[in-house]
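Quick question about two entries, pasted in order.
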Amino acid sequence: MKTLNIISLLLILTFTSCATVQVSTDYDRQVNFNNYQSYAFYKPGIDKAEISDLDKRRILRAIDANLSEKGMIKSENPDLLISFFTKEHQRINIYNNHFGYNWYWNPYWVGGYYGGTVSTDTEGTLFIDIIDAKTNNLIWQGMGKGTIQTQNIDKKEAKINQIVSEILKKYPPEM
């Protein structure tokens, strides 16, 4: 029974660790974040992000929904400018789980082969920058890193929403 509980716990940790988003933030400690009530997207910064326009719109919608939940409003004359950029790289996963031995013999030794499987996925990092609109100073930056499923649009959109939500949970910073 004890062994079954340990195996169950290990399986849960394995599956949940693959789905997590690593988040970190940085901010200016001299800024009073309670002074900011409105925002707009900083188009020149967003246009430089090297992702598809579809993914840009997904990220913008997710940011918009999260900031609206926090009581902030989108404005033509904003307190804050929101920008983002991304970095991504392919991650190669090697699973040595194929135990297909093919035995052979020669006068000097006996051996076999050991095989495995290889898969790739995209690990992306999303940086969300929050800029004071009056001073044009970066006052807060959040970074979220996670694996993006690119073949399934629904999973991709859900993962983008999760990453943005996890990043913006830390805005405004607790002071």
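Here is the second entry:
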Amino acid sequence: MPKLICVYCSSSRDLDPKYYAVGEAIGRGLAERGWGLIYGGGNAGTMGAVARATKAAGGKVVGIIPEFMKERELAFHEADELVTVDSMRERKRLMAERADAFITLPGGIGTLEEVSEIMVERGLALHDKPLVLVNQDGYYDGLLAYFERMIADRFKSAEFGTLFGVAQTAAEVWPLLENPAAFEADSLWRSGPAPSSTDA
């Protein structure tokens, strides 16, 4: 059974072509390594670019898509496995459970929601799956600055900075997935009283 790498990305059809090109490079790279893709099941935007490139290069494609999106003809029906679910929450849960690692490409608020949840769960030691953020052309500079402020003001420990890898290009993704940096759960979870839910 090949590793399944979850890719979070955009379904927008209106992006600069450079974003689709990186999505295609990620898809090819997955297949070249004998890995499969698990993603949101769409045929549009960067989602479609990643899926088509993975499939064309001989990689396995698993899509998880809510029924309402499938009804709007947004599904990638060429997927090797297309799982239809009832809700966005179920979609996120299945992708996270079945994935062996995560790649986050530039995306919108949905992409941010998805990767944030994975970060929280890894920070709480609920999983130890590698996560790489692709900061293409500085797209996530603002988010990374926010994380730095979070650490500086002690909302998170300095260890938070090793929770995920940051790649500037598609080529930089693979070493970060193959040899991820060590990360231990936040110190709050290793000693002292149990934190409240707001500490997450």
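Reply: The chain has one domain: 4-199. The CA atoms of residues 36 and 60 lie 5 Å apart. Hope that helps.
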